[in-house]
């Protein structure tokens, strides 16, 4: 079993979109900074947490780089009800615009 955040398991990271990965990376870097500061001042209680956060950061960088290289694909965006309605309206408008173009050509 991997040490670290249970929410940053590789299976979970594969489902995150690119923006969420960057957000999680920023959070992990902030946490690492705080942990290092605590270690320097002698207030750190759990030294294992330093190692776990470093590994989380490495996992995040790995997933981001895999997507840049095309090794793994980004998850497909999930359609919401509001975006479906917009796409239905847009599809309904397209034939009318094509009909108008056809009439102009005649």
From TrEMBL:
<feature type="compositionally biased region" description="Basic and acidic residues">
    <location>
        <begin position="88"/>
        <end position="106"/>
    </location>
</feature>
<protein>
    <recommendedName>
        <fullName>Large ribosomal subunit protein uL29</fullName>
    </recommendedName>
</protein>
<dbReference type="InterPro" id="IPR001854">
    <property type="entry name" value="Ribosomal_uL29"/>
</dbReference>
<dbReference type="InterPro" id="IPR018254">
    <property type="entry name" value="Ribosomal_uL29_CS"/>
</dbReference>
<dbReference type="InterPro" id="IPR050063">
    <property type="entry name" value="Ribosomal_protein_uL29"/>
</dbReference>
<dbReference type="GO" id="GO:0006412">
    <property type="term" value="P:translation"/>
</dbReference>
<feature type="region of interest" description="Disordered">
    <location>
        <begin position="71"/>
        <end position="106"/>
    </location>
</feature>
<dbReference type="InterPro" id="IPR036049">
    <property type="entry name" value="Ribosomal_uL29_sf"/>
</dbReference>
<comment type="similarity">
    <text>Belongs to the universal ribosomal protein uL29 family.</text>
</comment>
<keyword id="KW-0689">Ribosomal protein</keyword>
<dbReference type="GO" id="GO:0003735">
    <property type="term" value="F:structural constituent of ribosome"/>
</dbReference>
<keyword id="KW-0687">Ribonucleoprotein</keyword>
<dbReference type="Pfam" id="PF00831">
    <property type="entry name" value="Ribosomal_L29"/>
</dbReference>
<dbReference type="GO" id="GO:0022625">
    <property type="term" value="C:cytosolic large ribosomal subunit"/>
</dbReference>
């Amino acid at each position: 079993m991997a040490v670290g955040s249970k929410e940053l398991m590789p299976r979970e990271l594969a489902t995150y979109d690119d923006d969420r990965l960057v957000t999680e990376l920023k959070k992990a870097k902030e946490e690492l900074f705080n942990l290092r500061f605590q270690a320097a001042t002698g207030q750190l209680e759990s030294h294992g947490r330093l190692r776990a956060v470093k590994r989380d950061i490495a996992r995040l960088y790995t997933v981001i780089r895999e997507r840049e290289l095309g090794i793994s694909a980004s998850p497909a965006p999930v359609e919401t009800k509001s975006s479906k309605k917009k796409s239905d309206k847009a599809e309904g408008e397209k034939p009318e615009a094509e009909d108008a173009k056809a009439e102009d050509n005649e």
